[in-house]
Automatic annotation (TrEMBL):
<dbReference type="GO" id="GO:0071013">
    <property type="term" value="C:catalytic step 2 spliceosome"/>
</dbReference>
<dbReference type="GO" id="GO:0003723">
    <property type="term" value="F:RNA binding"/>
</dbReference>
<dbReference type="Pfam" id="PF02854">
    <property type="entry name" value="MIF4G"/>
</dbReference>
<keyword id="KW-0508">mRNA splicing</keyword>
<feature type="compositionally biased region" description="Acidic residues">
    <location>
        <begin position="306"/>
        <end position="325"/>
    </location>
</feature>
<keyword id="KW-0539">Nucleus</keyword>
<dbReference type="InterPro" id="IPR003890">
    <property type="entry name" value="MIF4G-like_typ-3"/>
</dbReference>
<feature type="domain" description="MI">
    <location>
        <begin position="353"/>
        <end position="393"/>
    </location>
</feature>
<dbReference type="GO" id="GO:0000398">
    <property type="term" value="P:mRNA splicing, via spliceosome"/>
</dbReference>
<dbReference type="InterPro" id="IPR050781">
    <property type="entry name" value="CWC22_splicing_factor"/>
</dbReference>
<comment type="similarity">
    <text>Belongs to the CWC22 family.</text>
</comment>
<dbReference type="InterPro" id="IPR003891">
    <property type="entry name" value="Initiation_fac_eIF4g_MI"/>
</dbReference>
<dbReference type="Pfam" id="PF02847">
    <property type="entry name" value="MA3"/>
</dbReference>
<feature type="region of interest" description="Disordered">
    <location>
        <begin position="301"/>
        <end position="327"/>
    </location>
</feature>
<keyword id="KW-0507">mRNA processing</keyword>
<dbReference type="InterPro" id="IPR016024">
    <property type="entry name" value="ARM-type_fold"/>
</dbReference>
<protein>
    <recommendedName>
        <fullName>Lethal protein 858</fullName>
    </recommendedName>
</protein>
Length: 393
């Protein structure tokens, strides 16, 4: 107020319009799942952006909640519950939630790997995406020298090898890389990794595992700058090898849920360029939303139907119907995936990668029968069969 007693009028602030709670980076304010469903039901246009954003938020919350309650006893039930949501649309969110949950609870890595194995048997591209993201994360942590995170990531990869979600070649490459220029930290990571998947490697690639242990012996005998603790760790893992990894089983009985012929094993190496497809974590408007949802519903019914059928019913269906329901589901899934056309890459780079894959497979096999079995399981495309014959000759 001035000398004349003048009082300025109060400033009236305009009421700000509430921001769209679904557009912020963190997803905005918390919305209970029931309220999300109610908001969706009140919208008539399912192709609208707002409806799809609400649907995206619901999928995100459902996936996060289900993954966080996974344990040995409810693993199959959680997978069935996840299938109620469109996990094809939310595959990036699913992989991210699984990786976060495993990072927070690395002691349950074998449980999360079993969870992934069940999903991967029905939706292989989800297993492939997860392995790609783990490999990218491993490379990043290894370059930074982040021992803690590297141990967590390699532990998860080890159990995915045990579950045959990814090929043992990736595990052998990781072990060799960690022991190439040995330090106390790199040797510790390598030993922790070998403990987790050593039994599996001994079963499928005994000669390759033997070469890894030969490297450990030479490090123990030649490396003078290693800490006494690291030397003791090497001696301890030698004793574990002698005991055939009995204290470190590859897969416990409660998590051995997928038959070998039903599992899809993804071939991944450290040398190849890998796209983690981080864009899948972000909402994208789908112009054909209702069509996509209807197609997923077909897949969901097929998958859950297969899970409910007994072995006898499945055998009867095979006799009565030439078309396998799983095959139909695969066709619908492929149709829904981006990039619907198969691209045959006959470039020199692709041939080099193929030759390396065959070479490593043969080298990691105990005898010709094991090598032949592994090569047959790789599902080699017809156009690469002449190249395979040339290599064998």
């Amino acid at each position: 107020s001035g000398k004349g007693g003048y009082t300025p009028p109060p400033v009236i602030k305009k009421k700000e319009e509430p921001a769209d709670i679904l557009r912020s980076r963190a997803g905005g304010a918390y919305i209970p799942p029931a309220k999300l469903r109610l908001m969706q039901q009140q919208m008539e246009d399912k192709n609208s952006e707002q409806y799809q954003r609400l649907n995206w938020e619901r999928i995100k919350k459902r996936i996060h909640g289900e993954v966080n309650k996974v344990n040995v006893g409810n693993l199959v039930g959680v997978v069935r519950s996840l299938l109620q949501e469109n996990i094809l649309r939310g595959k990036g969110l699913l992989c991210r939630s699984i990786m976060q949950a495993q990072a927070f609870s690395p002691g349950f890595s074998h449980v999360y790997a079993g969870h992934v194995a069940v999903i991967n048997s029905k939706f292989p591209f989800i297993g492939d995406l997860l392995v790609r993201r783990l490999v990218v994360q491993f490379k990043r942590c290894f370059r930074r020298g982040d021992k803690g995170t590297t141990m967590i990531v390699t532990k998860f990869i080890a159990h995915l090898i045990n579950q045959q979600v990814t090929h043992e070649i990736l595990g052998l490459e990781i072990a060799i890389l960690m022991l190439d220029k040995p330090t106390d930290d790199s040797v510790e990571v390598a030993i922790a990794f070998i403990k987790e998947c050593g039994m599996k490697l001994q079963q499928v690639a005994p000669r390759a595992l033997a070469s890894v242990f030969d490297r450990l012996r030479s490090i123990l005998n030649e490396a003078t700058d290693l800490d006494k603790r690291t030397q003791y760790m090497i001696e301890s893992v030698m004793a574990i090898l002698k005991d055939k990894f009995q204290a470190y089983p590859a897969v416990v009985d409660d998590l051995d849920l997928i038959d070998e012929e039903d599992q899809v094993t993804h071939m991944m190496t450290l040398e190849e360029a890998i796209d983690p497809e981080n864009g899948l974590n972000v909402f994208k408007l789908d112009a054909d939303f209702e069509t996509t949802e209807a197609e997923y519903e077909e897949v969901r019914r097929t998958v859950i139907g297969d899970a409910d059928d007994s072995d006898e019913e499945e055998e009867e269906e095979e006799d009565e119907d030439d078309e396998d329901p799983g095959t139909y589901a695969d066709q619908v899934v492929k149709k829904m995936e981006a990039g619907k056309t198969d691209i045959i890459d006959n470039s020199e780079q692709a041939l080099v990668a193929f030759r390396r894959e065959i070479y490593l497979t043969i080298q990691s096999s105990l005898d010709f029968q094991e090598a032949a079995h592994k090569i047959l399981k790789m599902g080699i495309k017809p156009q690469l069969e002449p190249e395979l014959c040339n290599m064998l000759v």
